[in-house]
Amino acid sequence: MGIVIGIDVGGSTTKIVGLNKGKIQSPMFITAADPVTSLFGAFGKYIYDNGIHLSDVEQVMLTGVGSAFVDSPLYGLPTRKTDEFIANGLGARHATDIDRLIVVSMGTGTSFVRINGDEIQHIGGMGIGGGTLQGLSRLLLKTHDIHQVAGLAAKGDVTRVNLQIGDICNNALPDLPVSATASLFGKADSNASPEDIACGIIYTVLQTIGGAAVLSALNSPVKDFVLIGNLTQLPQCREVFPKMESIYHVRFHIPPYAEYRTAIGAALAYVRENSTI
Fold first, then answer.
1. Phi and psi dihedrals of 227, rounded to 5?
2. What is the pLDDT of residues 197-236, one digit of tens each?
3. Would the pTM of this model clear 0.70, i.e. be above it?
4. Given strand 79-81, what is the order of strands in its sheet?
5. Confidence of residue 277 (pLDDT cuts 50, 70, 90)
6. What is the Cα–Cα distance from 38 to 30, expressed in whole angstroms?
7. Residue 266: domain span
8. Domain CATH code at residue 22
């Protein structure tokens, strides 16, 4: 089998990865003003930087919302599309040996995909994600640069803006330590620093996603959640999700190449289909 290239085409950012003899090869992303420019820029840069000849490529697999703008073969190569939720499931499943889990894809919004063995099922989503983080940051911090917001948050103290159980109760409640959040931004005032506000915004987005993920598994045996997407790269993930693990008695996993897992899953969709022929 030649190289299978998986491409996750977003609104302005394209992620691309090669699958060569089952191994992930040089993931990269490109940002441009529109999905088509981003797609062709990403593909051209990828094959050039990796010394790949077009004849080396067996298949190009597209997924993501921006793939709807592409209706012809890419550079004359065999090109197909796969469902984004299937790609999410395959990409996350590839990173773990857990048979039963929920994939939490943290993009502009957030989607939930349940995996039970070989079965992949989209079970819902929510309109909170990276877009929320950027929008609130524009309003409250006058920037939408996530790296800048994360840098500010690293110097902030979320307990100055979030109301905790310990602020309203002297003792821990059943299954809730005094450090648990009682109300996001429930303690904020007009004198809050940009650093504390940035920390509050990130915690709001990550805690809401984590809580919704846990609720999506209620009345099921699922205890493992695989987090994928750009938000997994926020340093605050290493603070928020371990705390939620101890409260809810679940496990949140952030696999290698977490931000590229949808592109990886697109390539795996072709591999899976052809391995059963």
1. -95, 130
2. 999 999 999 999 999 999 999 999 999 999 999 999 999 9
3. yes
4. 23-31, 13-20, 3-9, 57-63, 79-81
5. very low
6. 6
7. 3-87+260-275
8. 3.30.420.40
